Every structure is written in structure tokens, then in C-alpha cells.
């Protein structure tokens, strides 16, 4: 807000810096000043904390490419140097981002026999036997009828939700839902209502009001209602209250769309996500969505659930119809990591379950240690994403730089992913971290926390 | 949870404002003077916004922790001494915020009917939702079951699940790079051993690999653009880029033949959209004038204005009249969003797409004007999954625009980056084209030969079969359009020039002569017979006089599976999510994609397969 005011003054005092934002020769500015406000005023100053390029595998530790800037972060130049740091940033929950081991071997085999991409949309010739096999496996893993895989997690949400809805459908969405879910809801043309993040009371209130009032203006009853929630909120580290939502579902007869992008593989005794964690029947959730980008170390997403829904998706999902299908190496990675998680590989018995256990231990340990140290930590214990509140966007670059000096890579988030003043740093715990890694990280975070006055919860 | 969280924010804000005062939770230690200093000259912006955001929580916060209200007062007094104006401003903001919040609440429930709790309960009880998705119809199930399943590698020949080897004419691999690509595979294995598969994070959060940056650089060089950005999926590219620039206040003039991805991108942007007839420059000019008139009536600043079109149209195979568009766009002051996903890798002397086709090196002159032309196109989209065999897509534009996308391109910011293997594969394919003596140029020449050959043979089909159809005029098609609400208005007929003679022969060949994507339709006569014949086989009511779009889809599907099972050629019937496509959806067709990898023999086989299958269908022998 203040930056905005400053911008106003800036336009008056330094016109030459603002040419790209003004109307030139009858063309409206391509980027409006409000949209780019964040970019110009704040982001450039802290941009060295984002888009840091890496090389190699984003495993337990990662090699950053060093870069420098001579013009206050407007441009960067790679120095050619590399720096290996502890990786508390990647969504590599189960440590499957590897270039060796069972998964990599399987992928290599697949590359040699099946090649790389398909260059065809799935329904236009690109459907492979492997895809169908992987889909069966995902369905078996989740214990549901059927599943369909899509080549990108973001697109899974944004191209599937429109198909589930039509005019007369009400989508009720958690206010902090991921951008892909929001895009999907917008593309669907359905009416969208929002409830307060994680607040099932508010959800119930919205439901009661909306069902009783019917569609806007006509007051006709809704055709159906889809409640869209995430299993684990990646910016908050919080689980959704699935038990309560399922209870409400039975009462209010809506359908649940559960996005398990972060929770699948990472949560629950055998990694089967929040349903397992809360002891909810998988069949009570109408649409189980998840991505392979995180725990599986691949890319893409899936939709799983009842046969009728999945068949419909398989035929008409936009991504299946109009863009590339899942390439072979990705399928092989998904298949092999799933096999390990289900512990079905004779030569690697116990590897998958051990990872899941290790991750649970690590997350628990890290979460509690941070609290002990007096930090303001968000989220539920047991979540592999641990956000720590910084509040002041000014502390973003400070924290990120200081911790990087100490050889740790973290993700700092603020606008647009969170409200501007609720800036936070997010630690992603992985099964490939050892206890020493975590202890080292905690020690360093402790020091930085003291320097930056972050221990707000300290008694 | 939520209030809790807000309270936390407020807590932290207090902490920021009061320095370390709060931590001790001891008002006695608190020095008013210090607080005053804290408010001082720096006047950090967060304290001000804090006042706005946290104001409503102040009270609850005070209650929650029982924190002495006096502290607050004293602090105000303290700051007042030093800076009365700031306190005043602060107060105004608080008042404004409270007003703002209460106003919204008032508005929200205005239209509601007042109901008692009991009535609501009853309504909830009574409400019967419909199922989320309708079950598959019989046709849909047939279509779903007929989608071919490939077992094994991609290429001009592929193995199907049932073991048949078929010639592949449905692959966007125009240059044949995907067949026998031992080198690419070895490279992929090497990449795998260096990078693993997924990058496990969005580009912003340690997901940007060096290979991504190289690929971006290579793409920009190849297209002659200032900068490029890569997206990890083809569809996500269009869906992200258009809404990234054109917002609710934008105005888009779009070709009515653009593919579904662009349609969705336009819809997602929520801009005002005007359609012009497919590739019809006169109509475009008309629309531009009316649009400009419309705009001049809007109050406020000039909106952003875009023309959205494809280079090589995926759904029709026609090529955009780019020089005219560039001229018009300048004349009427529009910006151009050009999606050349299908054209890049196929058109032009070096495969740089429609820009190359018009402005690239022509025989003899040795001058490559692609880079200059690219500068004229504000936003250029392309794909990496089609001709280049990787995955995802890219956008080329000026540096600032690319920078803007790195923060606001939703599919870029909120999704994981492309696997290194795919990036390296695409990157190598581009190199093969970019190098003057690379094998890419050879492949392009071969591709052009194959396209001409294929078209020539397809046209001969009609000569051979001119008399096999007894002549009903094409009236029927028109009747169908008028009377059947299921079917769509014939979009192809707007584009008559691209067709071979419509009333004779059995097929219509759509698209530009240089297009590797060839849509083959049946002539209305032929379609009528086919529909009737299939009606005898069940599924279609043979007594009906007019047929529906579904009937046509079934016919095409039947043809495709006949071609595939009997003649071992893989040609796909083009499928669309009809109910979501812009009206009218493209007509059902057989989509043939020609590749440089095809041999003459394969092309002959493909055309024969099509001819024989159609004849078999309509004559039932
Ligand atoms: C909840 C949620 N859904 C979907 C996605 C998108 O997944 P992908 O990165 O595979 O596109 C993410 C990724 O950040 C996510 O957090």
C-alpha cells in the first residue's frame, strides 16, 4: 500500500523510469502499474531469494549455481561457481528425487526400451499401455475403482474441475485453495462460493445459506455442489478437517474434491494421504486428486475415484484431448516409486515404508524443535511442510540470505502466494535428511532467528 | 483456526511496532519514549498497513490475552507527542477499514429470502443433487473404447497393444525425430543420471535447472526473440499467458477457428472478446473497426487490445495471413498474441513456423527476416511437445514481459518445472533444426515433399470415386444444420477455398497446401450414405432423415478403427470436448499428420487405407 503511494509520487518525480507503464502512441500499457507494483517496488529488491537456479538433483542437498547482480537485482549473471547446500526447499518428501537407485534404474530401462515423449495427445493416439498400467496401480494404491493420470498437476486441477461442473453447480472452495483449483473453478462457469480457511463451521453456514437460497436470482435448487479442499495446505502446513467435512457431506449431500498434492505419499502410516491419516474411508471422498510432483519425484497428477467419474475424465479431460500425454520416463518414475511405497519390489524390501517412517519422524522432530526454540510456527504437527512466520516482507531477503550463507536453501514466500504482511519461510522436510542435517539446520535457524528477532512465541 | 491466525498476525505486528515490549509482557518495563521512537522517521510501512489489517483484531486481541488496554493508550499518547499527524492518519485508516468491512457484509445478503432454521433444515433435507457427471452415453463409450493403445516407443511405426505394427499418421513429430532416436535416448539417460526425473519444485523455489535456462536461451535464439520462458505443459502455456496480460478490462479480437486451449485462455482472462471469421481478413478489419468504436465509448483509460490467432491452425490446417494481420494490427493499434504451436517445426525454411514461412529465407536471397518479424509479434507462443518431442511450451516476448510472466504466469509460478530429460530432448531437437548443416533442414525438405505427395494422392481419391456416389446435392448437410439441435453449423463451409470440390467425390480435404496437418472430411453425400449404412449396423436410427454430430463422430470413429485394424495404419478421428468448445465445434474429421519420417510407400498405404475404408463403409462390401 505504501509502495503504491510511493509509486504515485514516483510517477511525478521520475517520469523517465515509468515509460513502460504509460500509454504510448495509443497502445495501453501492457502491464498495469498496479499489477507490476509488487514486481517493481519490492520484488526486485528481494528477487535474489527467488528463482535461484540449481543443477543436478534436488535431493537432501542441492547444488546452487551462484549468481551475482551489479544493478540491484535487475539482472543476474551466473558466476559459474557452484555451492552445495542443505535442501529444505524442495517438495522431495520421500527423497525420490534421485539419480540412482531403483527408480532411476527403472527409468533408464524405460528410456532404452520405450524412448522419451509421445508427441500426441492421449486421445489422439498417445495412449500407452504404460499409462493404463500406472493408472491401475494408482487406483490399487488408493483402494478405489479407477484413476486417470494427467501430464501436469496444475492442469489436472484446472482441466478437470470444469468437467465436473456445469451451469447450476455450486463450487464451494476454501479461501486459501491453490491457484490451479481457482483457475479450474473459474473456467467451469459454475457459481463459486468461498468459505474461511479450514473453518468447517463457516462451511456449514455457507452450505445452509446456499442450499436454502438456491441459485442466485432464480432461486432454483442447485444441480449439485462440489466442495473443493486441499489435504495439506502447502503454505500453512495445515491439514483440512476431513473428518468433519465428510460428516457434513453426509448431511448436506455435496461432493468432495480433495487435492492431495502435498499429502499423498507423505502423510499417513503407509503414505496414502490424509484419508489414511484421519481414518476416513477413501470412498467417502468423491474425487481424490494428487500430484506426482512432490513425493513421487516425477511430474503430473492423477484423479481417482468412482468408475463413472473417472471414465468421463478419461474421455473428456482437456489435457487428454488437447495436449501432451505423460511421457515414458515420468511414467516409469511414478510406477517405480509407487512400487517402493507399496513395498512390492523384492530387491528393495522395506525401502519405501522406511522412507515414509523417516519422513514422519523428521517432520515431527523438526516441528517440535522449532517450537521449543520459540519460533512462531504454523501448521499441524506431522506435516512435512513447516512454515515459520516472518510477517515483515523486509525480513524475507534478510532471512534467506543469512541462511544461505550458512549453506541452507529455504523457500521464503510472500505475496502473491500469501498476504503481503504474512510473509513466511517454509521448510520442507524430506526423508533424505538425516538427523544431523536437521540438527545443523535448527542450530543455524536458531542463530538467524535471534539476529532477526523472530522468536515471537518465546515465553 | 483463522481468527487464531489473524490474532497471530496482530501479535506480530504489535511486536514489530512496540519493539521488544510485548515479549516481556510486562507493561511496567515499557517505556513510552521508546515506543515513540519506534514510530519515528522510518515509519516502516508495515506498521501502517498493520493498522489497517489488524484493526478489527485489536479488540479481540486485547480481550484474548488480557493485555492491558492502558498500554495501548499510553502508546498512542506517546506516539501522538512525536507525530500527531501519523496517529491521525492511522486513525483514518482504521475508520475506513471498519466502514469498508461492515459495508461489504451489508451488501452480501441483500437478495436472500429470510428463512427460519427449521425451514432451512427442511430445504436441506429435500434437496436432491444430481450426480456429478452423467454416465457415458453409448457413443461415448464406443469412442472411449476405440482409442488406440500403444505399447512401446513412439515413431512413424508403432506397436499397438494387440501386437499389430501400424504406420503412425497421428503423431506431431513432423520431422521424424522420435524414430530411431538412439542419440536422444543416450542423452536422456545421461540427463537422468545427473538430474533425476522431477525437479520437485516450481521454478521460483529451486526448480529452475541450468538446462531450463539453456533451453530458454535456445528457444529465444531460434525464434529471434529477446527472451523466452518455458512452461511445463502445452495446455498450461496458453492458459497462463493470455490471462497474464489480458485482464477483465482487456479487449480481445480472436479468430473463430482458434484451438480449444486459446479459447479457454481467453475465457479465463475474462476479457471482452470479439470473434472474426476464421482467417477472413476482411471480417477482421470490420470487427476491428466496430471494436474500436465500442472502445471509444468506454470511459476510463484505453484498455489493452489484443488480436489472438494461431499460426498454423490445429483444427483446420490453414495458415494465418500474417502479413495482413501485422498490417491491420498496426493500423488499429492492437497487440498480437500468436500461437504457433502447430506450425513451429514444420513451416518455413528452417522450421521456425509461420514467421519463417512468410519472412524466412527464400530460395536464393539468403536473408532471414524471422527475427525482425518476431519483434512485431508482441507475444508468441509455441510448443515443445509437438515437433520437438519434449514436453511443455514456451512464450517469446520482450524481456519485461517475460519477467512479468515469471511472477504472474500462473502455470509457471504455481507448478513444478519441466523434467530435465524433456528439456534436454527439446533443446537438442531445436539444435538439429537451428544448425545450418544439421539434419533438421533435410528433414524439413522431406516433410514438404511428403505433404505435397499426400495431398496429391488424397485428391486423386475423389477423381477415382467421382461416380461411385449417386448424386444428392449437398442440401442435406444444410438441412442437418438447420434441423438438428445437436449438430453444429458447418464451420468448414466458411472456408470454401481450402476445399477441393465439395459436391463431387467422397472426401473433402481441408487446410493449406503446406500444412502437415490434414483434416479429411466426408462429403455430405458420402456422409449421408455412411450414416445410413451404419444405422443398419445398430446404434443409429436408419429411418431418420437428418443426422447428428454424434452420428458423424461415430462414422469417423468407425473409419479410423477400420483403417487401423484392416490396413494397419494409425489415423485418428479428431476428437473434441464438443460441449465445451466454442460454437460451432470443429467438424469431425480424420486427422492425418504427415511426418518427414514417412516413406512414399507408407503414404500410399495410408491413402489407400482411407479410400478403401470409406468405400467399404458406404458400399458395404
Ligand atoms: C495443492 C496443489 N495442487 C496442485 C499443484 C500443482 O502441481 P504441479 O506442480 O504438479 O503442477 C500444487 C503445486 O504446488 C499444489 O500445491
From TrEMBL, chain A:
Residues 84-445 form the Aminotransferase class I/classII large domain. It comes from the Eukaryota. One of its GO terms (biological process) is ceramide biosynthetic process. GO terms for cellular component: membrane; serine palmitoyltransferase complex. Pfam families: Aminotran_1_2. It catalyses: L-serine + hexadecanoyl-CoA + H(+) = 3-oxosphinganine + CO2 + CoA. One of its GO terms (molecular function) is serine C-palmitoyltransferase activity. InterPro entries: Aminotrans_II_pyridoxalP_BS, Aminotransferase_I/II_large, AON_synthase_class-II, PyrdxlP-dep_Trfase, PyrdxlP-dep_Trfase_major, PyrdxlP-dep_Trfase_small. Its cofactor is pyridoxal 5'-phosphate. Keywords: Pyridoxal phosphate, Transferase. Its EC number is 2.3.1.50. Belongs to the class-II pyridoxal-phosphate-dependent aminotransferase family. PANTHER family: CLASS II AMINOTRANSFERASE/8-AMINO-7-OXONONANOATE SYNTHASE (PTHR13693), LD36009P (PTHR13693:SF3). This is serine C-palmitoyltransferase. It comes from Zancudomyces culisetae (Gut fungus). The lineage of its organism: Eukaryota, Fungi, Fungi incertae sedis, Zoopagomycota, Kickxellomycotina.
From TrEMBL, chain B:
InterPro entries: Aminotransferase_I/II_large (IPR004839), AON_synthase_class-II (IPR050087), PyrdxlP-dep_Trfase (IPR015424), PyrdxlP-dep_Trfase_major (IPR015421). Residues 483-503 are annotated as: Disordered. Residues 168-461 form the Aminotransferase class I/classII large domain. Its EC number is 2.3.1.50. Pfam families: Aminotran_1_2 (PF00155). The keyword Lipid metabolism applies. Residues 1-19 form the signal peptide. This is serine C-palmitoyltransferase. Residues 484-498 have a biased composition (Low complexity). It is an enzyme of class 2 (transferase). Coiled coil: none annotated. Pathway: Sphingolipid metabolism; Lipid metabolism; sphingolipid metabolism. Belongs to the class-II pyridoxal-phosphate-dependent aminotransferase family. The keyword Lipid metabolism applies. GO terms for molecular function: pyridoxal phosphate binding; serine C-palmitoyltransferase activity. Keywords: Acyltransferase, Lipid metabolism, Pyridoxal phosphate, Signal, Sphingolipid metabolism, Transferase. GO terms for biological process: ceramide biosynthetic process; sphingosine biosynthetic process. GO terms for cellular component: endoplasmic reticulum; membrane.
